[in-house]
TrEMBL record:
A GO molecular-function annotation: D-serine ammonia-lyase activity
Family: Belongs to the DSD1 family.
Designated name of the protein: D-serine deaminase, pyridoxal phosphate-dependent
UniProt GO BP: D-serine catabolic process
């Protein structure tokens, strides 16, 4: 698996470019590494946003993983179709999504669904929906411990919100949801210290809840960068996502984590418009374009410098004009895999250099049937 040409296709002439290749052996390695790090699959709640695919969900379920996290109703429905036992929608269901969430729980009664809330207004709305539909809605209070994207600060107001949730006749208090995606220091010791400091307030809030004679709240915490630290907390569920496919963004920042890139772009040179310039068929529509250059790391093209990108094209400076030709195949690791996957209808599955299957990226859309 560590051979330098592990990614190469024997039959690349049969594959259109750009395509996204995935390697099940490497995905399995990443699953096993997650499990070995946490030691208990019951505390593992991987996020499906990275791959949005039933096959990878099933690979994890085959290893005993029963809890999953997702960001959209479509992803939640995909998990329901896979008969995932425990599904957390980690996006507050606002507007029509609140009713869609109700329909979701009714369609898949064999799965336990829960979602998040961070304010009294949404708590009231969801409580009313639960009453009207004669169901119980399971909720986690979403905590903002420094990212400032969603959630409520872990202070007195959060305590009051949790008490209100616990006492509501049509809602069930699950616990606290904490995402600390802002903690990305490349020094693992500093990142761990920052993670622990940010988590202290969450632990204080948990203690405050317990002091109200309320059952101790469960906690779901972290993403991929802080997974190595939260996985050590015996009473906390960890929710990495990028760990399943990995990418060069996290790979360069956190090499000590030892996850393997398991999704590779295949691309071709479409033009050599002038001296020292190559153009590839990897535009905005094919890879995540929000990152600064480089947006990919070529596995087989040294001394290249990515200089511009448009909808269908990636322009690269290159200082060796004797090797690349128009039509040549090259391979690259994306810098940000999650939104890159969402650009493809299918994943091309590769084993031992051969294409063995195509996996549908089912939840790349915002709506399946619900």
């Amino acid at each position: 698996m560590q051979n330098e040409s592990w990614y190469s296709l024997k039959n690349h002439e049969e594959v259109i470019s750009p395509s996204l290749l995935v390697y099940p052996d490497r995905i399995q390695h990443n699953i096993e590494l997650m499990i070995s790090m946490i030691g208990d699959v019951n505390r593992l709640r991987p996020h499906v946003k990275t791959y949005k695919n039933a096959n990878i969900i099933n690979m994890q379920m085959a290893r005993g993983i029963k809890k999953f996290k997702c960001a959209t109703i479509a992803e939640a429905e995909l998990l329901g179709n896979c008969n995932a036992p425990d599904i957390l929608l980690a996006m507050q269901p606002i507007g029509p999504n609140a009713q869609r969430y109700i329909e979701l729980t009714k369609k898949y009664p064999n799965s336990k669904f829960s979602t998040i809330v961070d304010n009294e207004t949404m708590l009231s709305i969801l409580g009313e929906l639960a009453e009207v539909n004669d169901i119980k809605i399971h909720l986690w209070v979403d905590i903002n411990n420094g990212m400032n994207r969603t959630g409520i600060a872990p202070d007195k107001k959060a305590l009051e919100l949790y008490i209100q949730l616990y006492n509501h006749p049509h809602l069930v208090a699950e616990g606290l949801h904490v995402y600390d995606g802002h903690l990305r220091n490349t020094n693992s010791k500093i990142r761990e210290a920052e993670c622990n400091t940010a988590f202290e307030e969450v632990e204080l809030l948990k203690k405050s809840i317990e002091d109200q004679d309320i059952p101790s709240p469960k906690i779901v915490a972290g993403g991929s960068p802080t997974f190595p630290f939260h996985c050590k907390r015996k009473n906390v569920e960890s929710s990495p996502g990028t760990t399943l496919l990995w990418d060069i963004g996290y790979g360069a920042q956190f090499p000590e984590m030892n996850f393997l890139p398991a999704a590779i772009l295949i691309t071709r040179i479409v033009s050599k418009p002038t001296t020292g310039i190559l153009c590839f068929d990897l535009g905005h529509k094919s890879i995540a374009p929000e990152m600064p250059f480089p947006r990919i790391e070529f596995l087989d093209l040294e001394h290249s410098n990515q200089i511009s990108q448009s909808e269908e094209h990636l322009v690269v400076e290159y200082d060796d004009l004797t090797i690349p030709e128009v039509g040549d195949v090259h391979y690259a690791i994306p810098k940000h895999i999650c939104p890159t996957v969402a650009k493809y209808d299918t994943l091309t599955v590769v084993k031992d250099g051969a294409i063995i299957d195509h996996w549908k990226v089912t939840a790349r859309t915002h709506k399946l049937t619900i």
